[in-house]
Amino acid sequence: MGINAERADGTVIAKADGRIDSSNSREFHTELEAVVADSDAALVLDFEDVAYISSAGMRVILLTAKSLQKSGIKLALCSMNDSIREVFKISGFDKIIEIHESQAEALSAVGA
Amino acid sequence: MLFLRAETDGEERRTGYEVLADLVAAIEALGEDDGWSGDLTFRISLVVDELVQNVVDYAYNDDAPGDVEVVVTSLDETVVIEITDEGKPFDPLTEAPAPDLTSPIESRPIGGLGVHFTKTLMDDVEYRRESGRNRLRIVTRKSPSG
User: What ipTM describes this predicted complex?
Assistant: First the structure.
């Protein structure tokens, strides 16, 4: 698991990869917090290269979404594989976090 | 019929995390050998990951660690997962808190998702307390239920 982030104006596009589970969710949280600290207006979290996420990773996503909401920073997720999309659906996370098909759609939704 | 069987050595609580990675790798290899779809492999890995994690986190005290046994059997039309531990009696199906799936983001509590995934993604889940052991038996059809 790792996160690659690039910044354009106030928007950060962060691309995670690999598996996000209980063995690395702490590291994922730390890396994501660093990315959040660099975002002024919006954060797009791209799941294209994420193969797997468990509830330990979902917990980090929820904590991040809560903290971004408090700071008034927009969050959009994108490019999930079908299995991960299903996990977000049955968690009810798709009702509280924006999820888009592509990075372009996510960027346009956050107004970047 | 293909199956895998794995046991932790019970030496330390954190051993669970390392064993879990080996376990998931073994499940992926089993799925590949038996021609599972990517989604089936994902669902089986997730359920084993979540339930073994529950055992690591809740069944044993840090000062009294124990074993967890996982058997995954691939039959013609179904996959059967059996998870056994010798920890405190605990039925995750009725005793784990129900997850909150509807509150707004600021008040959405964190947790309770692992058992919810299991109930939602699998076709049949059964708990038994037997001979001082917690036993979970989970069955899912290989093709999506419909």
Answer: 0.91
